Amino acid sequence: MMTYHYHASPARAQGWQSHIYERLAREAIAGRGLIGGLRVEPELGTPVRGGLPATIARGTADGWALSGTKIYSTGSTGLDWFSVWAKTDEDNPRVGNFLVRSDSLGITIEPVWDQLGMRATVSHAVHLADTPTPFDHAVDICRPEQRAAGAGDPSLAIWNALSISTIYDGVARATRDWLRAYLNDRMPTNLAASLATLPRVQEKFGGIQYYQISHDRQCDQGGGDRAGTDRQSGGSAGRIRWSGIIGTFCAAASTRHRAIQY
H or E segment at 207? Predict the structure, then answer.
């Protein structure tokens, strides 16, 4: 999903040097070129609320040498590229993303991520020790005040919400399909029919379908927003992210709870 995010903004393709973006795009078409953002740090936390990162990029004769630690580095062991949020060592530092090959020298991945149910994200700590990257791989660095003043691309909020929602949607649909099979197959001896024949169960399952259809409509609307037919990106992104998802799982849990009583 993060790789899709990096290719979602025309501004990014226009702002990065063409040979760098073309390389990443060709790698993505070939099925690789996986990029992950390394932004969160032990001291700073997420940079969303501002502040300068502790990770520093020092200028060298051949490019940059990055040193620092990033945590919650989703996809760490499976990525081809790290987009490292760092500051330069200049008197008036610039801050931004530095593209670094994941097999570069000076990178150590510490396997600290062992969260129940999310182990597959391998969101380990990544340590960089004078890790080299070329000059032109500082793809979007600028003064902090310039970044704060920039308007950004509002459509990225829609893109992010749609990407995350497709994952939630897949889980919700799989849950619904499993439940449908269970309700049709389960035939308690005191009922002499499947649970799917019970009006109350049918009502609950219909609620799941209602939430699913509602979510589909929100995603369709969000797709229109992303295409530029509606610029209310922030509000639409919030609706997409949550519409139908909580309701779907609540309805599924409620129906399952009722079903196991039989």
Answer: helix 199-226
- Whether residues 253 and 131 fall in one domain: no
Q: Would you state the torsion angle of the CA atoms of residues 102, 106, 111, 113, taken in this order, to the nearest 10 degrees?
A: -60
Q: Are strands 35-38 and 81-88 parallel, antiparallel or unpaired?
A: parallel
- Are 160 and 145 members of one domain? no
Which pLDDT belongs to residue 108?
97
- Which has the closest alpha carbon to 24: 56, 57, 2, 55? 2
**Prediction pTM value:** 0.70
Range of the domain at 114: 2-149
The residue type of 56 is I
Non-local (6+) Cβ contacts of 154 within 8 A are 231, 233, 234
Q: How many CB atoms lie within 10 A of CB 247?
A: 18
**Claim to verify: residue 136 and residue 186 sit in the same structural domain:** no
Structural domain count, the chain:
2
**Is the domain of 185 the same as that of 137?**
no
| Residue 110 CB contacts under 8 Å (≥ 6 apart), including other chains | 124, 125, 126, 127
pLDDT band at 236 (very low <50, low <70, confident <90, very high): low
Question: pLDDT tens, 20-67?
Answer: 888 988 998 898 889 989 999 998 888 877 889 999 999 999 999 999
- What is the CA 117 to chain-centroid distance, rounded? 16
What residues contact 40, with CB distance under 8 A and at least 6 apart?
Answer: 46, 47, 70, 71, 72, 73
